[in-house]
Design goal:
Helix content is about 35%, strand content about 25%. It is α+β, with helices and mostly antiparallel strands. The strands form six sheets. Strands 3, 10, 11, 12, 13, 14, 15, 17, 18, 19 and 20 form an eleven-stranded mixed beta sheet that branches. A four-stranded antiparallel beta sheet has the order 6-7-9-8, with helices on one face.
Length: about 550
């Protein structure tokens, strides 16, 4: 039995690109093996010091880097909005363009950009709590299978269409009915949306579902007439209700938005925003340092430190992005539960967080806790000696697949994992791919071995990961367990989130601790660098960017 701790998109890379990814991963692996041994010793010394120097016997469930993340934060943040003056165009560098500017079809990370001109129906605050400040201002459960919502009055899309009850109905049903809708799985239980009057809708479900308001926090409003008329071309000229209006795009190079003077909350401070896509984080930082960019997204913690030391503003935000390792338990050698357990024990999240991220990320052993600081009943404690013992001299050959360069530090992370797994006895074949290839192969159940994915919950609701990763129709399908599908359905039919929590806790224990189908690693801390006259930019724990009050200070 595994030792646990308790506590209360599209296209393949070219052969040349793939060869480059492999060369890069091999170089990273050689660098990683040089520090992994030293890190093990350092971690042991640190544990000894902690044991001798503290009178606390509390257990953080394997999140030993959490307290270190506070001390390791870089910079003091970006200035508030109080001194921002009207005018100017903010130049922003992000790692990659969205897969689509149609939010119904786009990947989650695209909200950095489409979130400037489009808005969700319900809204989460910066701390990840559901508020009533969005396009839907109130709701109540009027029956076991019925939710009633109030629509904000006076809101219009950029083309003049009203955002009313009809538009809200159209938007919700599009998530279920539009081919390729990225949230389709989450809305298959919706049978209908009825318009009660111009400011009221009722959402009907086949079976009771307690989290409908939460799910609408990731649904972006669509203008019915324009959306139906444009069809697949909507992404070329997207329309929303947000503080900015889509202006132009140059494929793979830039996207521009301009201020919406008729925005329902009042016009934003900026005249516009220009997004560009320098893929390399060091390049994004250099462009801010030179003044070519005003704001750079997604820097490594070392670059955040460099930015702070060079006089730039640095914002560091602990986010809900969780790096996960998926063990494909349906295929050899991981159809053997002992081999799965050995892999889970071999991967040491604490070494990875300390060695690669300097403790700024938050080591995490739970799957179904959505936000940093939330606990789960039990986690797997890494144990390299036990992992080697379980393999008993065997050398199972496995693939290790990841999206090369996609999340901050991911190439180094997979190199560290390779070193840890090989120390236990595994023979690891590194397999870096592009994002579209990994998703295609995951959906097609083509992957084997271990594959990595940086998952962001659109909403802080355990069901998002349960349906996304644990059910038979999920994106991963790495461990199909009919009992999990049954439990997922039972949880949704609970009276509320509190009543469902016991089911989610049990599912977490089964998936991570008993079956070893998932190895959670860490919550990612996002680092941003900005010029000294930038103010008012916000980034939430759920990784929503907010440019409404952003601008330049005097």
């Amino acid at each position: 039995m595994t030792q646990v701790a308790s506590n209360a998109s599209i296209g393949r890379s070219t052969p040349e690109e793939e060869e480059g990814h492999v060369r890069s991963s091999q170089a990273s692996w050689r660098r990683t093996t040089s520090w992994i041994g030293r890190l093990t010793l350092a971690a042991a010394c640190a544990a000894t010091v902690a044991a001798c120097g503290s009178d606390s016997d509390s257990d953080d469930g394997g999140n030993s880097a959490a307290s270190g993340a506070e001390a390791a934060a870089v910079g003091e943040g970006i200035k508030g909005a109080e001194n921002v003056v009207a005018g100017g165009t903010l130049k922003v560098g992000v790692p990659a363009p969205p897969a689509s500017l149609d939010p119904t079809l786009s990947n989650r990370g695209g909200n950095y950009i489409y979130g400037t001109f489009s808005e969700t129906l319900t809204k989460y605050d910066d701390a990840g709590k559901l508020s009533k400040d969005g396009l839907l201002t109130d709701w109540e459960r009027t029956g076991r299978n019925t939710w009633r919502f109030t629509v904000r009055e006076g809101v219009k899309f950029h083309n003049g269409e009203p955002f009313d009850a009809e538009a809200a109905k159209f938007t919700i049903l599009a998530q279920r009915d539009v081919e390729g809708a990225i949230l389709k799985t989450y809305f298959l239980n919706v049978t209908d949306v009825e318009v009660v009057d111009p400011t009221t809708i009722e959402v009907k479900t086949k079976t009771p579902q307690f989290n409908i308001p939460d799910q609408l926090g990731t649904v972006y409003a669509l203008p019915p007439k324009a959306y139906e008329k444009a069809g697949a071309d909507f992404a070329k000229n997207p329309i929303g209700t947000g503080p900015f209006v889509f202006a132009s795009q140059k494929a793979g190079q830039s996207i521009s938005v301009t201020a919406n003077p008729d925005y329902w909350r009042g016009a934003p401070k900026l005249e516009g925003i220009e997004f560009s896509f320098p893929k390399d984080a060091a390049q994004r930082l250099a462009l801010v340092q030179s003044g070519a960019l005003d704001l750079a997204f997604e820097l490594a913690h070392q670059q955040g430190e460099e930015a702070a030391s060079s006089g730039l503003q640095v914002l560091s935000v602990k986010t809900s992005l969780k790096e996960l390792a998926f063990i494909t338990g349906e295929k050899a050698p991981f159809d053997d539960p002992v081999v799965r357990e050995a892999a889970a024990l071999a991967i040491d999240r604490n070494e990875i967080v300390e060695g690669i991220f300097g403790g700024t990320n938050v080591a995490e052993g739970g799957l179904l806790n959505m936000l940093p600081g939330q606990e789960v009943p039990s986690v797997v404690e890494p144990d390299a000696a036990k992992a080697k013992e379980l393999l008993a001299g065997k050398s199972p050959e496995i693939d290790l697949t990841w999206i090369a360069g996609y999340n901050t530090g991911i190439d180094e992370v997979t190199s560290a994992m390779r070193a840890q797994l090989e120390a236990a006895g595994f023979k690891v074949n590194p397999n870096p791919v592009d994002q579209a290839t990994l998703i295609k192969q995951a959906l097609g159940r083509e992957l084997s071995g271990i594959w990595m994915y940086g998952a962001v919950p659109n909403v802080p609701d355990p069901n998002f990961y349960v349906q996304g990763f644990m059910t038979e129709t999920s994106i991963s399908g790495n461990c199909v367990r009919p009992a999990w599908d049954k439990a997922a359905a039972e949880a949704l039919q609970a009276e509320d989130a509190a009543a469902a929590q016991a089911i989610y806790d049990d599912l977490n224990t089964q998936a991570v601790v008993d079956e070893h189908c998932y190895v959670p690693l860490y919550f990612e801390t996002s680092h941003f660098a900005a010029g000294d006259k930038v103010g008012g930019f916000k980034f939430s724990v759920l990784r929503y960017s907010d440019f409404y009050e952003a601008g330049f200070t005097e």
